[in-house]
Design brief:
Length: about 625
């Protein structure tokens, strides 16, 4: 397709050139004439009598409009589309602190897709994955970004009218920062900075200066969430007990002085105010009481970010949005694309929570929203699995209500992915008869030990092999039909191959052992476990390829070790069973032990699946360190 743009397009010309190949058009003097007007209110796109037009207020809106233009020109009919932006800021927060640090090229790829979707903000969550001059151990061997890398990302984002905002931590969630000796004097607890300490604030200034320097944006996210033990470590030893609201307020005001010095506009997560005001420490406690003197101590021009990825009812969000508005500060909403479950993205929960949350935000007049894409416990789920969730946020951003068919068409145009295929990425965790909407069985059925089987009781009478075998075939079909996103489908395909054997192999082994079926045990040890070993290695290699194509190498060693441990334990299972069959040992104590339900986290005390996302709890009842 050839297009001739008419009007003042200098500010968007570079972005047009970049997106031409992606969207399937080229700029040509003999192309379809398209008149461009920048500066109007809503987005308008149309084509009639051989002429097209684009009207948009911002650079970012132009690129969404450009996508709409090309998408509809391909249909070969006249059209006129008007969209009313629902939010001033709508984007994503990419977690680059849970071992998976996106390469610059991956960030650029995301930015291109975001531009066509119409998202206008990317937040980079960096606990210690950015350079702080003079602090060589800050982010040491963690894949930290250099100033130049972050500047390159910001320049690229600016081309599309996308704002990159640094998101750091200036109170808690700093275990990786505080584990080195240089930080000993600044520690309250293992992950919380020591408040009311001059060295702490000198260090925070270094972090704020370094994190904000590469970016055009004057916004900065200071974190300060989940500081559960604030004032209860070395602070308690030095100062005695002090009302934790007061510690929080004092600390926040000192940090605000630093952001003022650099002309920055800060925001923080809001949960600590609600947790400290709750008798149970619950963020979502409707009875939490926050004293007025505490509210008055929150600095002016401090944004409060209300994060909530859990509720499926619109009213739940409305209640807490109103509570946030009572603070008299700028309120930003942060939802989530459920990538932190483990191996798979959870689109069922993502859609339910997002639709409720963003509907509430529109009604409550919230103008800034973003979707967090966390990578808890090693970032086993690749960020590109989240593309459909990003599209969901984008479509909410340009319509009061969205339609599934429109979402599907937009997603398939903006990403070249297949809507149904991306939805099926969640199916390794959505098993028949499952009741919990946050269950993640694929993670614990993958990593749990074959001979110890911490979760075997939950699958004791279930037939999962055929389910995972059928799902593997579907994933292979997606690979064959959508090579563009092989990087997304290949790893889940291999995962299903593994789980078609491993999901219930532990139960099978114990049952055979209990009934002394030596022939069945011999078949398992000589054939099934050998086959499983090969499938796990294929999965490891597919996961490794996915990781190295999108992320820096740092952090992969943790996942490699997990696979190495799994492979070693498969070998050990073969050896132990063989020794038993050969009469070298009289019994296998691991298989003599009674299997109990996993009595921890959100797990049912009966058949079925719940949630557990901690590798060290999944693999053994014994500590690993």
């Amino acid at each position: 397709m050839e297009i001739k743009f008419e009007g003042e397009i200098n500010s968007v010309l570079n972005g047009i050139k970049v997106l031409g190949d992606t969207l399937g058009f080229e700029v040509c003097q003999d192309g379809i004439p398209v008149k461009v007007e920048l500066g109007s209110g809503n987005i308008e796109v149309g084509f009639k009598h051989g002429n097209g037009f684009i009207k948009s207020k911002t650079k970012n809106h132009f690129f969404r409009a450009l996508g709409l233009l090309v998408e509809n020109l391909q249909k070969g009919k006249d059209f006129h589309i008007t969209e009313e932006p629902q939010f001033e800021m709508n984007g994503i927060m990419a977690d680059v602190s849970r071992n998976a640090v996106l390469t610059v090229e991956s960030i650029k790829k995301l930015l291109e897709i975001m531009a066509v979707m119409g998202l206008n903000m990317m937040m980079l969550y960096m606990e210690d994955t950015y350079e702080v001059p003079g602090r060589p151990y800050f982010g040491y061997m963690r894949g930290r970004y250099s100033y130049d890398e972050l500047k390159e990302c910001d320049d690229y984002a600016n081309m599309f009218g996308i704002e990159i905002i640094p998101c750091i931590q200036t109170l808690a969630h700093l275990e990786q920062v505080l584990k080195w000796n240089y930080a000993n004097n600044m520690k309250d607890t293992s992950d919380i900075l020591l408040a009311e300490c001059d060295e702490t604030y000198h260090f925070i200034e270094e972090m704020i200066k370094a994190a904000s320097a590469p970016f055009r944006s004057k916004r900065i996210h200071l974190g300060m969430d989940e500081a559960h033990n604030l004032g209860l470590g070395r602070y308690l030893d030095k100062h005695g007990y002090k009302r934790r609201f007061d510690i929080m307020s004092s600390h926040l005001n000192k940090v605000k002085e630093i952001t003022d010095k650099y002309g920055l506009k800060p925001m923080i997560w809001s949960d600590m105010y609600f947790r400290l005001g709750s008798k149970t420490g619950d963020y979502y406690d409707v009875n939490a009481v926050i004293p007025q003197d505490v509210i008055k101590e929150i600095p002016d021009n401090m944004g409060l970010v209300y994060w909530d990825y859990y509720h499926n009812e619109e009213d739940s969000y409305s209640v807490f949005l109103r509570k946030h508005k009572d603070f008299g500060k700028e309120v930003i909403f942060a939802g989530g694309i459920w990538t932190w479950n483990g191996i798979c993205v959870n689109y069922g929960k993502t859609f339910a929570a997002t639709n409720a949350a963003l509907a509430s935000c529109k009604k409550e007049g919230i103008k800034m929203v973003f979707a967090t894409i966390w990578g808890d416990n090693g970032a086993e789920t690749n960020i590109f699995n989240a593309l459909l969730g990003m599209q969901l946020y984008a479509e909410h951003g340009y319509a009061k209500e969205i339609r599934r068919e429109n979402l599907k068409e937009r997603f398939e145009f903006c990403t070249k992915g297949k809507y149904d295929a991306f939805m099926e990425l969640s199916k390794a965790d959505t098993l028949p008869g499952q009741k919990s909407d946050v269950a993640n069985p694929s993670k614990y059925l993958l990593w749990q030990d074959i001979l110890i089987g911490m979760f075997d009781r939950h699958v004791e009478y279930l037939q999962l092999g055929q389910y995972y075998s059928d799902l593997q075939k579907k994933m292979q079909k997606h690979i064959d039909e959508n090579a563009e996103w092989k990087i997304v489908y290949e790893m889940p395909c291999k995962l299903c191959s593994v789980l078609s054997i491993k999901s219930t192999i532990g139960v099978e082994i114990k049952n055979c052992y209990d009934r002394k079926d030596t022939d069945a045990l011999r078949l398992i040890s000589q054939e099934k476990l050998v086959d499983l070993f090969e499938r796990v290695e294929e999965l490891r290699l597919a996961h490794k390829e996915q990781w190295f194509k999108t992320q820096k190498p740092f952090g992969w060693e943790i996942i490699d070790i997990r696979y190495g441990g799994l492979l070693a334990r498969v070998n050990t299972a073969i050896t132990r069973i063989t020794e038993y069959l050969n009469g070298e040992v009289e019994r296998l104590e691991e298989l003599e032990a009674e299997r109990l339900y996993f009595d921890c986290f959100d797990m049912p005390q009966g058949q079925g699946f719940g949630y557990c996302n901690l590798y060290h709890r999944i693999i053994s009842a014994s500590p690993i360190g």
